[in-house]
Amino acid sequence: MDIKSRLKNYGLWISIAAFIPIILKVFGKDVLPSNYNEIVTAILSILVMLGLINNPTSENRGFSDDK
Question: Where are the transmembrane segments (predicted)?
Answer without folding.
Answer: 7-27, 39-57
